[in-house]
Design goal:
Number of helices: 20
CATH superfamily of the largest domain: ABC transporter type 1, transmembrane domain
CATH architecture of the largest domain: Up-down Bundle
Structural class: alpha/beta
Helix content: 55-70%
Order of helices and strands: HHHHHHHHHHEEEHEEHEHHHHEHEHEEHH
Bound molecules: adenosine-5'-triphosphate
Strand order of the largest sheet: 6-7-8-3-9-10
CATH topology of the largest domain: ABC transporter transmembrane region fold
């Protein structure tokens, strides 16, 4: 949950139920009924492209069950009709019975194969589409979403939840269509052969129903616990490993081990509980099934002796009775898979219902060409721009009036929490201002397409993130259609070329391999080259706080000066050297710009910046 948003009552309740699902998503404000409706809407939508495969599979399943039910009836006929003929020397009916029995077995095999193959094919197709949709939707969601919804949860959606759906899609049709049909066909067969046995069996169904209801209730609770604890395991694991530096840096391994052991134990206990419930249910159902077989055998045997029933029919009845109870077991176990699939579907649907808060403009406006602006683009203007992270949260940026002419280098300074990163995120449009507006070369940022905004404004973050791939590919992210010469030229200009060439495969070194592991300074230079290649009008730079050794520091500083060139730059500055190359310093305090001027002016004025400057100088 967003640190500042207050969860609603409903969210609190659900959060406790699902353990880790208190996501604070806008979509979570719905009632249970609305959420269920939305989930089934999603199910219908993802099934639409494969409805023919599923319908054909259903037809095959119906044929398969019919062929299954015919088996015992054929045996009864063979014993009661064909066998006496055979004893009399006429084998034709016995042969016919054999062929018919074989034919139904083959038909069963073929329809089982086709049904399974079609459902698997359709299920995998649906999952493939859904996985892609979750991925592409999640990466398009605005930064605000990602700051709330942890990566562990996103991974859970992609793994645990799609896996639950796989079970539903792959076995669902068999159980939902196949199992009840088999029961109905079997009941019809029994009743039409001998209504006394049919009645007995239906009577025995009553304790079976009670037993199954008990099992469903108990196992639903156990399964919900299993799901909650398994999601907790994933979230705990992902977050610990994601923050491994902090974990090791602060020696939190033992505490984490203990916490993980506790979460793991909860999971283990929940799993044991569910197995115990199943361990009671399944044998009890078997006993019940066998009891009815025994009763049918005794009652039927007595009726055979009294001439009311043929032997073959009795055998068929015993076979049918045995078979009648099998699907109940299957339906009951499936109920759990269905429950997890429905929960998974709800979570996926709620993620997919989340809309990016940063929307594409309905009527995009193009940025004026730099030539029209006298050659210098990148003028930023704040008109009463203010900002809150959430409707109920505090104002993080108070209405700001500011003009940054194109080409100016601005250093943003101020104590922690003053709002520097927030200003940077607003200019990069990771968030929209709550009030007022920010314009770039006279155009409101909200009127620019995301493509033209990303072309014009580039943010280089502290961690200088490198993606898996080669160094050249990493630089080319700045401009995907850049030629190799342009990539190398950008690295040369920034001063990264020399160290890149010393790497085992030069520009083609994979940054993930041992030889390609880069130092903090080198990573920064690569990200500078990437930004240089992108050649934006406005550059936003969150300067790394970790200090580098002297030669690297110098190389990074030189690279930075080149990168800045004469483009507009907004630097969240942590180093005195950087601040001193800025044309202008903005000092922020509690969400307001409290000082604004050249470094020299501000030092002379003797305010906050002068103090900061003195402290910096003393620390060198
Ligand atoms: N995603 C967020 N949700 C809610 N509040 C936030 C969020 N990010 C920042 N804040 C709050 O906004 C205020 C300004 O934060 P900001 O990150 O802009 O400060 P900063 O000046 O960049 O600090 P630092 O130098 O420590 O990075 C702080 O009070 C912070 O708690």
């Amino acid at each position: 949950m967003n640190s500042q948003g207050q969860p609603s009552q409903g969210q609190h309740r659900r959060g406790q139920l699902d353990g880790v699902e208190d996501t604070g998503l806008a979509a979570d404000q719905l009632s249970d009924q609305e959420r269920r409706k939305r989930s089934f809407g999603l199910l219908a939508e993802i099934m639409r492209p494969v409805k023919w495969q599923f319908s054909s599979a259903a037809v095959f399943i119906v044929i398969q069950q019919l062929a299954t039910v015919v088996g015992p009836a054929l045996i009864a006929w063979a014993i009661d009709t064909a066998l006496p003929d055979l004893i009399d020397g006429d084998a034709s009916l016995a042969i016919l019975a054999g062929i018919a029995y074989l034919a139904t077995a083959v038909l069963r095999a073929i329809t089982t194969y086709l049904g399974t193959w079609l459902t698997t094919l359709a299920g995998q197709k649906v999952l493939y589409g859904l996985r892609r949709r979750i991925f592409s939707h999640t990466q398009r969601l605005s930064l605000g979403f990602h700051e709330r919804y942890t990566s562990g949860r996103v991974i859970s959606r992609q793994t645990n939840d799609t896996e639950s759906l796989r079970e539903l899609l792959q076995t669902g049709l068999d159980v939902i269509v196949g199992a009840p049909l088999l029961m109905v066909f079997t009941a019809i067969a029994i009743l039409s052969m001998d209504w006394v046995t049919g009645l007995l069996m239906l009577l025995m169904l009553i304790p079976g129903v009670f037993l199954t209801r008990w099992f469903q209730r108990k196992s639903a609770e156990a399964y919900r616990d299993i799901r909650t604890h398994s999601a907790r395991l994933t979230v705990d694991f992902v977050e610990t490993m994601g923050g491994i530096r902090a974990v090791q840096g602060f020696r939190r391994e033992t505490e984490n081990d203990e916490r993980f052991a506790a979460v793991g134990l909860d999971y283990k206990n929940a799993a044991l509980r569910s197995i115990r419930i199943f361990g009671i249910y399944q044998p009890s159902l078997k006993v019940l099934g066998n009891l009815i077989v025994a009763i049918v055998l005794v009652v039927g045997g007595w009726r055979v002796l009294s001439g009311q029933l043929d032997v073959g029919v009795l055998l068929a009845l015993v076979l049918y009775t045995r078979r009648f109870f099998q699907p109940i077991d299957m339906i009951a176990s499936f109920y759990n898979s269905l429950q997890s699939a429905v929960a998974a579907l709800e979570k996926i649907a709620s993620l997919l219902a989340e809309e990016p808060t940063i929307r594409e403009p309905a009527h995009p406006v193009a940025l004026p060409a730099e030539s029209e602006l006298g050659g210098v683009g990148g003028t930023l203007e704040f008109h009463g721009a203010s900002f809150k992270y959430s409707a109920t949260g505090p104002t993080v940026l108070h209405p700001l009036e500011l003009r940054i002419p194109g080409g100016q280098t601005i250093a943003l300074v101020g104590q922690t929490g003053a709002g520097k990163s927030t200003v940077a995120k607003l200019v990069a449009r990771f968030y929209d201002v709550t009030d007022g507006q920010i314009t770039l070369d006279g155009v409101d940022l909200r009127s620019l397409t995301s493509q033209s905004l990303r072309d014009a404004v580039v943010m280089v973050t502290q961690e200088s993130y490198l993606f898996s791939g080669t160094i050249a590919e990493n630089i080319a992210i700045g401009r995907p259609n850049a030629t190799r010469e342009e990539i190398e030229a950008a690295a040369r200009t920034i001063g990264a070329d020399a160290f890149i060439r010393r790497l085992p495969q030069g520009y083609d070194t994979d940054v993930q391999t041992r030889g390609g592991r880069l130092s903090a300074g080198q990573r920064q230079l690569v990200s500078f080259a990437r930004a240089f290649l992108a050649d934006p009008r406005v550059l936003i730079l969150d300067e790394a706080t970790s200090s580098l050794d002297q030669p690297s520091e110098r190389a990074v500083q030189d690279g930075l000066t080149t990168l800045l060139g004469d483009r507009t730059a907004l630097i969240i500055a942590h180093r005195l050297a950087t601040v001193m190359v800025a044309d202008r310093v903005l000092v922020m305090h509690d969400g307001r710009v409290v000082e604004d001027g050249t470094p020299a002016e501000l030092i002379a004025a003797g305010g906050r910046f002068a103090q900061l400057h003195r402290a910096w100088r003393e620390s060198i």
